[in-house]
Design goal:
Elements lengths: L6 H83 L3 H28 L1 H8 L6 H16 L1 H4 L2 H10 L3 H25 L5 H23 L14 H74 L3 H28 L1 H7 L4 H14 L3 H16 L3 H14 L1 H9 L3 H4 L2 H15 L1 H9 L5 E6 L2 H17 L4 H24 L7 E7 L5 E7 L8 H5 L4 H10 L2 E7 L2 E7 L1
Length: 579
């Protein structure tokens, strides 16, 4: 449990670490997520402006291809990055690199095989997607569009593992910059290829793949230059690792399985009830939904590495503060996105190429959809938290309720009535899932508040407070039943490390230095120390090699430590020492 200190002081100290880390992740994550959504919207906008409802219908028919590969990319990438962040938080750098290389090699192999099969059986695939040769113009556009998608698969969908792993490798700004550059290139070339050069709907695919290549180059440079812990290595995929990654990331990837099924059902239903106009409106709403969903995606990209790290450190206060910030900022931005889409609903539908009756239907459908944005964010935020905290079953059921268990029956019931009734499926599905989320909130609050008797957390900001906290920690070791020798060893290691950090801060005129340390006693009686400080970059273990006056103390720490691991992460120095 935490050392006894006023709650207000503990909260203030916690914010020193968590709030800065949250800002470090959230700002670039929001920028990259919005950019990604805008890239998808521009694809639809440009094709709609150039080719009208036929072009939009063809893109809508190709959505299941996008969803299928996102099942793989997001499932393994998000799940893998969560395990990667946890491994590094526990000091297991080699295990983290093995996770990355297993995920990357497996995905590349699957991409190549499935894309080749899709190209070999393209007519059968188009029939499965709902393309009807009776609508010859739409069928021809869809054929060219899907063929281009399949050719570009290996480049397009390697963005997932590169982005998520680099983001967790203490490079969120670089990962965001890679995604922003990718989307900027996509947007510019989309206009050039589709409008200027008249390359048709498939021109939007070629622009996207060129943008994706920029993302891979930028993220790849981080790995090749060894800026973090990640390294490329030729390796055979470890299916044990892959199973754990997919199990964790499945709640994110399952949404694409459900969307694959529901998009096929909706396309067929709307094509039958309202023709190409209804499918075109659905494509517009789907692409605009990417913009509102980008808020939840950015919160997920932010909280997942933070929650994974803090849970590995058994830091319940930091987890709770992370979730408070996530819900606060995510709700505010979700409401802003809903207000923005509502204010510009009419011009947006015109920009997408909707005219006449399809324009009227599009405006009404968008206004109804806006009711689902805030509850959708709450649902998705809890899904991301549940994934990061090993509550994978809860995450799975929340995602299943909002995108399948509620969505599909409501589609069949309301969609069969009339085309306007169908759009109420979105807010009603999110409401059904939200009821389930609220039912599980008590268990999550217990998880956020739980500390455990085998966990000790405290802070130091000067040699004076360090001495008092070291004495308090030694008493805690005695309460845990540690031997006098073990307690003395642990407190001396802690004191040497923290004293070195404070001395370095003083040398560099860092006046507001704060050290947070957490000690965890495992079932076997071994102690693990997690130390974080807000000073300038400093690795105490380098003192020995440098021949510094404190080298003797670091030599003692090295001899007593079974393992030790340092890295600069979340804008702070972090140390893991296992005794």
């Amino acid at each position: 449990m935490a050392a006894t200190a006023p709650a207000s002081l503990r909260l203030s100290r916690e914010r020193c670490f968590v709030d800065k880390a949250f800002r470090r992740f959230f700002a670039p994550a929001l920028l990259s997520s919005v950019g990604l959504a805008l890239g998808g919207m521009v694809d639809c906008l440009v094709v709609g402006a150039k080719m009208g409802a036929d072009g939009l219908s063809a893109i809508s028919l190709g959505i299941p291809i996008y969803l299928f590969y996102n099942v793989l990319s997001y499932g393994f990438s998000i799940g893998g990055s969560i395990h990667y962040a946890a491994a590094l938080a526990e000091g297991r750098a080699d295990d983290g690199r093995a996770i990355f290389n297993s995920v990357l090699s497996f995905l590349i192999g699957v991409y190549l095989v499935t894309a080749a099969l899709g190209l070999a059986f393209l007519p059968q695939l188009l029939s499965l997607l709902g393309a009807d040769s009776a609508h010859s113009e739409v069928y021809a556009i869809a054929e060219r569009y899907v063929r281009a998608q399949l050719i570009c698969v290996p480049v397009l969908y390697c963005q997932g593992p590169f982005f998520y792993f680099v983001n967790c490798d203490d490079a969120p700004k670089l990962a965001a910059a890679a995604m922003v550059v990718s989307n900027a290139v996509d947007i510019v070339l989309n206009y050039v290829f589709v409008i200027v050069l008249g390359m048709g709907a498939e021109g939007s695919v070629w622009s996207t793949v060129i943008g994706a290549a920029f993302c891979l180059i930028i993220c790849g440079s981080h790995i090749v230059r060894r800026r973090g812990v990640l390294r490329f290595a030729l390796t055979r995929p470890d299916f044990g690792i892959l199973a754990r990654c997919m199990r964790t990331g499945f709640a994110s990837s399952v949404q694409y399985i459900y969307q694959f099924v529901t998009v096929l059902a909706v396309n067929k239903l709307l094509m039958r009830t309202s023709g190409a106009a209804g499918v075109a409106v659905f494509d517009v709403i789907y692409n605009l939904s990417l913009f509102s969903a980008s808020v939840a995606d950015s919160i997920g990209t932010t909280l997942q590495p933070m929650v994974s790290t803090y849970r590995a450190e058994r830091d319940a206060d930091a987890v709770r503060r992370t979730m408070q910030l996530s819900l606060l900022w995510g709700s505010a931005f979700s409401l802003a996105a809903a207000a923005l889409l509502g204010a510009f609903a009419r011009p947006l539908c015109s920009l997408f190429g909707l005219e006449g009756a399809s324009w009227t239907l599009g405006v009404t459908a968008l206004h109804i959809y806006l009711l689902s944005i805030l509850p959708a964010f709450w649902n998705q935020c809890m899904i991301y938290y549940d994934q990061s905290s090993a509550r994978v079953r809860s995450a799975f059921w929340t995602e299943s309720l909002r995108l399948f268990i509620c969505f599909l029956p409501l589609t069949l019931i309301l969609g069969s009535r009339d085309v306007l009734s169908f759009w109420w499926v979105y807010p009603l599905s999110e409401l059904g899932a939200l009821i389930y989320v609220f039912a599980g909130m008590r268990a999550r609050r217990r998880d956020w508040a739980e500390r455990g008797d085998n966990i000790y957390t405290s802070y130091a900001d000067s040699p004076l407070t360090l001495g008092a906290e070291v004495e308090a920690f030694q008493r805690r070791c005695e309460e845990w039943g540690c031997s006098a020798q073990s307690a003395y060893c642990a407190t001396l290691v802690l004191e040497e490390l923290c004293a070195a950090i404070l001395e370095d801060a003083a040398k560099n005129a860092k006046s507001d230095v704060l050290i947070k340390f957490t000690a965890i006693l495992d079932d076997g009686g071994a102690l693990t120390l997690h130390i974080r400080d807000n000073s300038y970059e400093f690795n105490p273990f380098e003192l020995e090699a440098a021949g510094d006056g404190d080298a003797l103390g670091m030599t003692f720490v090295r001899k007593k430590a079974q393992e030790f691991f340092y890295r600069r992460y979340l804008g702070f120095n972090t140390l893991v020492v296992k005794l």
